[in-house]
Design brief:
heterodimer; A: Beta Polymerase, domain 2; Cytochrome-c3 Hydrogenase, chain B; 5-stranded mixed β-sheet; B: 5-stranded parallel β-sheet; two-stranded antiparallel ribbon; globular
Chain lengths: 513, 184
Amino acid sequence: MLVSDLNATADRLPGPMPVWRRQVGSGDWLAAARSAADNNGRLVSLWGSERGGRLFVSAAYGLPEGLTWVELPLPEGAATYPDLSEIFPCANRMQRAAADLLGVVPEESTDPRPWLNHGAWPRDFFPLRKRAGGDAEFPGQELADYPFVRVEGDGVHEIPVGPVHAGIIEPGHFRFSVVGEKVLRLEERLGYKHKGIDKRFETLPAGEGYRLAGRVSGDSTVAYAWAYCMAYEGALGLRAPARAAWLRALFLERERVANHLGDLGALGNDAALAIGLAHFMRLKEDWVRLNKKLFGHRFLMDRIVPGGVAADLSAEGAGDILRQCDTVEAEVRALEAIYEDHPGLQDRFLTTGRVTPELATRLGLTGLAGRASGVARDLRTDFPVMPYGELGATMATERGGDVAARVAVRFKEVLESLRLLREIAKGLPAGPLLGTPAADPLSEYGAGWVEGWRGEIFVALELEGRERVRRCHCHDPSWQNWPVLEHAVIGNIVPDFPLINKSFNLSYSGHDR
Amino acid sequence: MWKLVKQIVRTGVVTEPAPVPPDDCRQEAERIQREILQTLGKALTIREVDAGSCNGCELEIHAVNNPYYNLEGLGIKFVASPRHADMLLVTGPVSRNMAVALKRTYDATPAPKLVVAVGDCGCDGGIFGESYACVGSVSRVIPVDRVVPGCPPEPIEILRAILATVRAGYRQKDEPAPEVSVSP
């Protein structure tokens, strides 16, 4: 089956992004995956849902012409479907998560270990089944041991790290198998932050879901809220007016710059240049303080709302933004020169934690880390929604695939975002901040797809009427990139792990959901 | 190297006065430092535990360490192990998968075991509430001295709570820790 065949019989979902949705039979499930793989496509997300007493598995493929959401209805009483992890390795953990949450499992799965269920709730309780109560509690449940893969051999020993880590970071467990200083294997165990967000969506009014989406991963609150609103607005036939669309892009780029500034500082710090952290954190603090002054929240939480935005920009505020962009650009260029001139820093950055472009493509590395390994994809340039079409964003790529490349992409993206922010501040169209919905919903399905600072955020939404969420699935690009981190550290020394990890800076919360 | 020196000279010191009410902030900050030293015999050390947050609170706890707030300048620092910590700064909601780790971290912390719960979710579970996956507030798992509401609370609020807890904590220092019940 060709991709064009796949889309010929699919419904284009209403909304600004090119997203199609179609159902397939079990024979076509694998054919669709192979066709996507053969056509330079990638697996964006995989999840399950229940509707009218039947179970469904969905896969979203990113293709050159857009995104295709393929849904497989499972036969009555069945809970298995063909395994996709042979074609797309990143499907493994997504399938295990779907097994834990909905009880749907791949046929002949090679890895049946639970992923999000650590034993705090029974293995036969599937929270996303409709009959499962969202507020169910299971006192007396004991957390279970996890069968890590053991590396055997002379001098091999294990270093367990986490879930509580040494720094101010999110919890997760890393199991290193090492000889001397050298990492032979890293195995991650995640899911510690699982908060039952998918189930929680179903108890909130659909119009409030953007607030929960904005807290799937707090550092990407703008991208998530935008993706949720895009899905919700599409289903409802609600269009954000031009001024709101421009302000959304302004918020998204401000979020990108804030996170990149923090990461650039932390990367200097992890390579023992503490002054880099001090300066970048100072710039970041200035940055979020202006967010607070102009828009009322340091991280712009809840500023993107269904139909538009909840904060405006005055002419005076636009002046503040222009001035700040100039100041920050000068400072970032000065700090970039310091980083580049620093032999000790470059020695730590170069060749460390390398993911070659070939490996990146094979494993589905995405977003910022993907662009540092030559995977040239950025939704802002691939499928530019307003105002990116008008602004013409430039994608930043590198091919080195090491920490240095991920640092370089961040520097480039900060400078490009500063340019975009200036353009937005100067060209912001006049008009209302909120649109009005159509009389009747256009569709019970909606999809949101936004290039957050870390990578593509995807939201698949199923509505019942205007106000009920039947299913909301939020996908973080960390799902793709966490498994690649395991490869990136192979052969590196243990003390370089924090640096490599920081250079990816993946979300635990966004992954664990 | 000269670029680095230039950057240092050009930037100068950006640290702002600590958020304490009396007029002479610097004197107050010095007094806090003295108090901490007298009571603990050393700097105050904090272990941060993320027990399930969305990571928004962590952004602000990081910010407390930036040059504007300059926590270390007040003789307070974040440490890598609960065994070295006087205070736990905990963000929530506590996920069920983190409840045991949080309880063990608390058990590993020596007296005075001060605990500050940061953020709306740490206070009452926030938007995530209580469910099959979330225990909810931090106080359902370990005793909490003080909560800092906000989504996320701003660095200045976190700093205020740390300072206020240190002061209040001295008085209770010799009292035994309350009995803890863990759920699940």
